Amino acid sequence: MQIHADPITINCRKVLAGLELIGAPYELVHVDYFKGEQKGEPYMAINPNASVPAMVDGDLVLWESNAILQYAADLMGNAACYPTDLRQRADINRWLLWESSSWFPSCYVYLVENCVKPLLGGQPDASVLETNAAQFHKLADILEKRLDGRRWIVGDGPTIADIALAAPMHLHGWQRLPLNEHPHLRRWLTESVEQLPSWQKTWVGEGFTTQKQ
To answer: What's the confidence (pLDDT) of residue 212?
Structure first.
């Protein structure tokens, strides 16, 4: 299984951490996001969306990070990370769809404004952050209620739902995500997800570095 990715991005970090959790072996093919390699050939022959990551497994080419995690978990027969029980699987699928359609876009605003823009010499746009704040807190409160009394999103152990939902928050300090208003969400992220070996192995830090000092 080849994973074409740049480990610094949200969705690439998600896939790499997820594959580590699943126990799925993979070969990383680096695609430099900031150099725009995802927008050129030969990568666009793999993923015409010009976005990372993408997976190549034999003659199967797959993009969409959550689909890659679903495939890998089934390929490895890892029912702990992606249960085969119909109700639990439907629950996980719900969170995966919600993450990509709602949670990711809201968290991404903080990443762009507080991380990417300053790194490129710009300044955060306070009006953009203010406009997004109500939506972020609305969504964060959904997770807050879900995690009240729970260590994990679904079931008694970590699943690909936990990895997917944590990924848009993976630089939460640098992003300046307002998590103090959501203590259950913050506790889940810092005390559960961030303690996973798979998460620590795929560490990304401020400045989009993958090397701990």
So the answer is: 83
